Amino acid sequence: MSAEEPTYSELGRPNPAFVNGLNPSLRSSQADSYRAESEGYPASSPNNSTALLPTAATQGAGAESAAYDTEPKRDATKRRRLLGFGVLAALMVVVLAVVLPVYFVVIKKHHGSAASSAISGNSGSGGNSTSGNSGGTPIVGAVTGGDGSTVTMANGQTFIYNNSFGGYWVEDPQDPFNSGAKPNSWTPALNETWTWGVDRVNGVNLGGWFVLEPFIAPALFQQYPAASDEWSLSELMIADGTQLAKMTEHYDTFITEQDIAQIAGAGLNWVRLPIPFWAVSAWSNVGVDDQGNIESEPFLVGVCWPYIVRFFGWARKYGIRVNLDLHTAPGSQNGYNHSGKGGQINFLNGIMGIANAQRMLDYIRIITEFISQPEYVDVVQMFGIVNEARIGDIGRDQLSAFYLEAHNMIRGITGYGEGKGPFISIHDGFQSLSSWADFLPGSDRINLDNHPYFAFSGNPNDQPIATSENPDDAGGQWPGLACNWGSLLNTSREQFGVTVAGEFSNGYNNCGLFLTGVNGTESYGDCTLWLDSSTWNATVKAGVEAFALASMDALGDWFFWTWKIGAAANGIVSSPLWSYQLGLEGGWMPTDPRKAVGKCDAINAGSKASFDGTFSAWQTGGTGAGTIAAAATKSFGQWPPATISNVPDDALTLMPTYTATGAVPTLTYTTPSVTATTSMPSLTVSVGNGWFDAADTALGVTTVAGCTYPAAWSALSLPAPTALCTGS
Length: 728
What we know:
Keywords: Cell wall biogenesis/degradation, Glycoprotein, Glycosidase, Hydrolase, Membrane, Transmembrane, Transmembrane helix
Strand content: 5-15%
Radius of gyration: 28 Å
Strand order of the largest sheet: 5-6-7-8-9-10-11-12
Family: Belongs to the glycosyl hydrolase 5 (cellulase A) family.
Mean pLDDT: 84
Largest sheet: 8 strands, parallel, barrel
Low-confidence stretches: 1-141
EC number: 3.2.1.58
Number of helices: 16
Shape: globular
Protein name: glucan 1,3-beta-glucosidase
Catalytic activity: Successive hydrolysis of beta-D-glucose units from the non-reducing ends of (1->3)-beta-D-glucans, releasing alpha-glucose
């Protein structure tokens, strides 16, 4: 870095390369927006500086005392200067100690209560106020801190918060839904507006935490060599009686509060959290297989939910926005191990395709009701409704019809327009981004999710990445190839709307323990180097970092997959290219993600296309949101879809479906119990009842009494029905 170049800490919020003439630093102060002269606040802050200016009297006193000073004037001046600095420093300490708690507890609390009342009024639920202080007496003593502060966790243990980017945490036990924290100086606080096209997503996934994957939690799978996915692992743990104990330990320890603090301290501002549908429920009877046996979902039901709620609290505490991703679907949406069970695709495919989709819509509905409550709407600002559904097997119109049905259901719960519920994230189905141009014009806040990877191309990808330590040519061809992603995503932002890379990694090859599956094979060749980062030299690290920076710059809004890879049984992280945390520790991930801005231009690679950072109003919940024209859904506007892949035409009307006569589970506020070394105050505020829209009283889907169903996860191998079952 030359002497003329500013350091990254001096850059402030990065100005996206595609934004012309926009100055994101002009955002008005959130604190100022709360202030009114009638509340006793000054009209403008400069007036407060009057008391710090010298008066004529003090100037005279200073001159008189100087006449009796026997020390050289230079030393006296220096001493007065030091004294002045000391006074100013003391004043700053007082200001920080007094103003910050007052702001977060009094000003912010006042604003938050007003906002909550407005939201509750719109929902019709009435009883979900976040205010535990309805009498109007300010609560004092909110806990907050920035870089170097001490954080006390729920169990009474402490750690030091390291954040050199101006971020600060907020945790007030008497106001647990305070959303005033910021992860860094350039990201809006949770209770401030996120502006798409100006604010940029720099995020990580927390993969493998609530949806197990062999390569992320390898040691757990190594205990059971026959396990290849969470379904088979669960069956084996049930057999030896350890499922509850081992899964609870994993949920409790794989990601901790310190991880979330480290994520904020790394300059990141979003987390994508994959969760399973069995956080809500699973079925003990999902049909009969080809051997006449009842198929039962073996997943551990509901146990992960308190840990998910606990995570929401951590995200709020450190100012991290959440993209909650429903990563699994009944029957499997892609046949991958991270769908819950590898093998067949029975979601919107085959004779149980509609029935499985009915269940999925129920899960989306139940989760939407919880996260749309005023207590959580500031934190969970994006909801991925189904991860990586494979259009090649399911069909474009079929998946589009599901997306439309889910959109209409979600907005029926949340209402239409900015601030009413989360963005709805839909995956591209492994189809080109350009094929989604003009999808559902007039919809309300849908974003397109893209997962660009080189690792799974099937090619050897053995071109060297360890070519130089010089940032200008480190990484060989790989940074330049990553830069090509930029034009694709920016064109999608122009033609579709908000487009985000929900997953990417440093895995330019497919090396990693269990990365291609428990019994998978690698196309790369000899993967020895890539299984243990302790053997990497400076050239390897420079190449990987160059690839990471180019990827980040090209993608613009991104979530790295993933934050943490667990160690294998030998104690070594054996998929190091996929761990952001390990990359920070090892020196091949940037300690400031803003370092990536301009990387592709610096190496003269890729193209940012022509997107200028401006979205249409309806795309972000403004004018026109919720006005989808019938012509835009002509080919897929029917639900259920008119045709289903792998179902003969003469059997379409005979497909098994569920009936909406069942009870609906409600997710509630609950967190894991802890043994604390210090007493924690009990909550005195509403935590919500788990159901945002009191007018949503429809029943849930269940089996038709007297009907026998094909096994929901293996129905593709079963014959099509010859008669419609209408029940007993």
